[in-house]
Structures are given as C-alpha cells and as structure tokens.
Design goal:
The chain is of the alpha+beta class. The chain is built from 12 helices and 21 strands. Helix 4 runs parallel beside helix 5 and helix 5 crosses helix 8.
C-alpha cells in the first residue's frame, strides 16, 4: 500500500470557512448558486462551474471545464488558495451531533486501484468521463475520495495525540458540522504507520477514483505540463472503520404500477409478513418500514438461500428482489425513473411528507448497511446495490487540493 504526503493547495485560515463547500454531487446547481451568493471566492465556482456561466452555455461541458480552470486560477491569483512548499499529511476531524470521525488526507497511487484500493460500486461511464475531463482541465484533484480501512491502534493513538496541537483550521459550517484540520509537517512517523495498512476501501467517490486512474494515462500537451509522479497519484481522506457512521439510503416509488393500495398490500402480504405500526420500525437487519396512504407498516424480509454473494443478504437487495422488482416492476433501479433514493440524513418525516404530498406513492425506510458488510462485499469482488450507503458527515471540498500540473 503506497500512501504519500503531498504539496497541497489550501485556503488561508481566514478564508477556509467561506471558501470550502459541500461535495459537488450532494447539491443541485440551484443550491450551489444560493450557497455561493455574495462569496466570490466560493469553491463552488471550481466544483460546480456552471453557476458562473450564462444560461446559454451553462450546460456545455467544455464551457464548464474551462470555467472551472478559470475559477481555480482566480483563487490562486487572488491569494485565496496558497501552495505548500513541502509535502505534508493533514489530519481531518469532522464532528456532527456529537459524533466524531478522524482521518488522514494523503495521496494514493493509481497503481493500487482495485488491488489494495477495493471498490464496491459500479461507475457510470458518463460520470466517469465528466470527472476525468474536469480533473484534466484543472490538472488538479480538487475533491478528495473518501476511503476507509480497518482500525490500526497506532493510527488511533497518533490522531489522539495530535488533537492537543494547534489546528490549521477549526470552524463550524452552516450545516452544523465542525471541521478541524491539522498540518502534519513531520511526515516520517505517520508514513511508517500508514505503510502497515494492507488495503483500503472506497466509501464514497468511486467516480473520482476511476477518473484518477484514467488521468494517469492521459498524454498532456507541452503547453499543459504535468509532474509524471504526481499524475499517478490522487487525493483522498482515509478514516478508520470504527469511527464511521453509515446512514440508510431510503427508497421512494412514484406509483403502484396500476394497483390500488388495498391490492398492493394484499399481494405484499402473500409474500412477506406485513404489520401496521404507529411509526417507522426499520430497527434491525431484515426489517424495513413502509409508508403508504398515511400508514406505516413493518415488512419482514426473507433471507435468501445460502450462496457466495454477500450482497444478496443486504436489506436493500432483499427489498429489490422481493418487493420492488416482482410487485412494483422496478427491474433496474439504476435507470428506472419511477424510483428515487433519499439519503437517511433527511429522516423518515421527509419520506412521509413526499408520500402525503403525492410526490410518491410509497416509501421504504431501510436499515443501514454496516461498514463490515461493505468491506466483506468489496473483499469478495462484489458490488453493493445502487444507492446502498449514505456516509455522514460529508468531507468538505476546498480545504486541500492535490495539483499535478507544473
């Protein structure tokens, strides 16, 4: 496993709270516009460059990538982003509602991808291509991949000692998450610890990681020189499994495929134990909550027969196999427009609200996938069903960047 310090681009401490932003793929264009309003140095102009383009070109990918490069240049010229003189590691702690997770920002090698860096998700070619072109235009990895590993006591001890030091950044974002970053300038002791990690797992950012692998093979023209070593590395933040929290990824289905509520429930009862409940009760594996016509139900899913695929026993897969496909006709949840996925951070009241407002016919509140299940599936070379995990809190973009251009 090859893990390296890097020469970061990073904001000055006074700019970090307003420059840094949520990840590009958890906000819409309109939300990014609203959050960047009156903040000319907002990092959204790099990660969501369409917000600064006229309506006539806002949907043009080439215009977007050029605008992202221009925005990054503006941040550099204006001193909002500063280059580090030497390669460093960074420790990054996020605290949300009393839950803390601590990670290390570092560079990982693309040669380790799918060998020591395990995946659990299929990437979409269009999204992978878009991220590759975005990163190529910047010649910078602007957003980190979110990685996890099994716990290492020495790493826990190192991070605990570090918390007594003066941080580089320490602020609370508008969503209530506290972000604290320490610069680790003596890199050798931490490098020795990280060297003992046998493998890591992508928690979030599969498209960014896959794009980085493709970037490593790009031939850049002489007018856009790159460092050949750094071109084969990408930015990530690595967390230990015990400190991570996975929330469920819930499901909304727009219609009952022509069935009445009574008929749908009757068909469901023939297949699974179904009981009315006063509220949502996805309180254990194999049990999900369903909201329909103003009423919550508990569904007990049936474990599949034994096999070699650990993903088959996940609640999201059992729901797909036992309810969504055979009863509601959702054969491919990746592409079917009748299904919508809602991150667990939004809560069960949001599911009920959307059904009550007839934006969906039925909602399913899921029991979350565990970190151990995720690692077991990745180790088996399998993939999770689409939209299975929602990690919270999210990494903040713009706190550190990895440039590979020279």
């Amino acid at each position: 496993m090859h893990i390296h310090p890097f020469r970061a681009l990073r904001p000055s401490p006074d700019r970090a709270p307003t420059l840094s932003v949520p990840p590009y793929d958890v906000v819409t264009t309109d939300e990014a516009k609203r959050l960047a309003r009156n903040i000319p140095h907002s990092f959204f102009y790099v990660t969501r460059p369409e917000i600064g383009l006229p309506e006539s070109t806002a949907d043009n990918p080439e215009c977007q990538h050029a605008a992202a490069r221009h925005a990054l240049d503006q941040l550099l010229r204006g001193g909002a982003l500063l280059p580090e003189a030497n390669p460093l590691f960074f420790a990054y702690r996020l605290v949300r509602e009393g839950h803390a997770q601590r990670g290390i920002a570092a560079c990982f090698e693309t040669a380790d991808y799918e060998i020591h860096i395990r995946t659990h998700e299929k990437t979409r070619p269009d999204k992978e291509e878009d991220r590759m072109r975005h990163i190529a235009a910047l010649r910078t990895h602007d957003e980190p991949v979110f990685l996890l590993c099994r716990d290492l006591p020495d790493l826990t001890a190192f991070l605990t000692r570090l918390e007594n030091d003066l941080p580089l950044y320490d602020f609370v974002a508008s969503d209530g998450v506290r972000h604290t970053v320490w610069a680790i300038r003596e890199t050798a002791p931490l490098a020795a610890i990280l060297h003992r990690i046998p493998r890591v797992y992508i928690a979030d950012g599969h498209h960014r990681a896959a794009a980085a692998v493709r970037i490593a093979e790009v031939s850049f023209p002489p007018s856009q020189p790159v460092d050949p070593v750094e071109q084969h590395r990408f930015l990530a933040v690595l967390f230990q499994a015990s400190e991570l929290r996975i929330l469920p990824y819930n499901r909304l289905v727009r219609d009952l495929q022509g069935q009445s509520v009574a008929d749908f429930v009757a068909v469901l009862r023939k297949r699974l134990p179904v009981e009315k409940t006063p509220g949502p009760t996805a309180d254990r594996p194999g049990r999900c909550a369903m909201y329909l016509d103003g009423q919550w139900y508990a569904l007990t899913l049936r474990p599949p027969p034994g096999g070699n695929d650990p993903s088959a026993s996940l609640d999201v897969q059992m729901l797909q196999d036992q309810v969504l496909a055979p009863i509601l006709g959702i054969q491919n949840p990746r592409t079917d427009p009748r299904i919508e996925f809602v991150g667990g951070i939004h809560g069960n009241p949001e599911l009920a609200r959307r059904v009550d407002e007839r934006k969906a016919a039925v909602a399913f509140s899921m029991h979350p996938v565990t970190v151990e299940q995720l690692m077991a599936i990745a180790d088996a070379g399998r993939t999770l069903p689409p939209k299975s995990t929602w990690f919270e809190p999210k990494l903040r973009s713009g706190l550190f960047l990895h440039p590979f251009g020279v």
